[in-house]
Amino acid sequence: xxxxxxxxxxxxxxxIEENENSGKFLRRYFILDTREDSFVWYMDNPQNLPxxxxxxxxxxxxxxxxxxxxxxxxxxxxxxxxxxxxxxKYFLQANDQQDLVEWVNVLNKAIKITxxxxxxSQPNSDNLSRQGDCGKxxxxxxxxxxxxxxxxxxxxxxxxxxCGESFDRNNLKRSQSHLPYFTPKPPPDSTVIKAGxxxxxxxxxxxxxxxxxxxxxxxxxxxxxxLEKEPLRVIPLKEVHKVQECKQSDIMMRDNLFEIVTxxxxxxxxxxxxxxMHSWIKAVSGAIVAQRGPGRSASxxxxxxxxxxxxxxxxTSRAGECSTYVGSYANVPS
Length: 334
What we know:
The chain is of the alpha+beta class. The protein is about 20% helix and about 30% strand. The strands form three sheets. Strands 1, 2, 3, 4, 5, 6, 7 and 8 form an eight-stranded antiparallel β-sheet that branches. The protein has a seven-stranded antiparallel β-sheet with strand order 14-13-12-11-17-16-15, covered by helices on one side. The protein is elongated and about 65 Å long. This is Pleckstrin homology domain-containing family A member 1 isoform 2.
């Protein structure tokens, strides 16, 4: 699956037909770098290659006109998609259907980096006469790339017109509305403390996937996206020993990495910025303190529950007496 590296580039392995119409696909490591306006590929992850190893191929993103599914064009090539670049078509194979969809999406988003057109920022009909009397203003924008998706923000302060109102608020809302993947999800009620996207490591495959996290007074859970109603997993705060900045971030080659240590597993989570990482650590730690009270750890809470419930141990000598169920984290989605 494509993932975001420490330089905010989209990376991953794909098979490519390097010689046009040869039908021979070769395994390569691809890097989508929107800041450099390039899509390049190497024999392997450059971190695993000798220093100074050159790339195998490269395409300027401005040369790519369209990326689409090509299973009908190449029926023998499973999970195949095509990039139209100038006079040539580049055929690539993904690892599975989900991998294909994700690569097609990130590539199409990368080649459509544009500043909102004037038509997108036109005022509605109710305000035409009033705004016409207030004059016009110029606003410049900056486009940042996060995970292959353009994030558009103004680069200068809003200019207030003679009516004391600013047009830019409406423009900014419109530009952000086109990016629901990175827009914070509004809390459905007052119990939600913090919510937003992070990248987490899987339990089995150790791959990294972007997930929508949501913290409330008792749990922290994550969803496949903010549009999903059912979480992939919910972690009770009472099972969390500690949450802290990860000391192995250099080993894992991940910036802004923090860890949520529970009784059965350590969750490694990557935030989009150092500020966001510290914000999550503070929010989760605060929720734990609010739930347990200051100075009470997960082990002390379990000890208190044992003392308060005499029927907490599992007796094996006589069936049916005082048995308790201990939940397992096995076979749950990552």
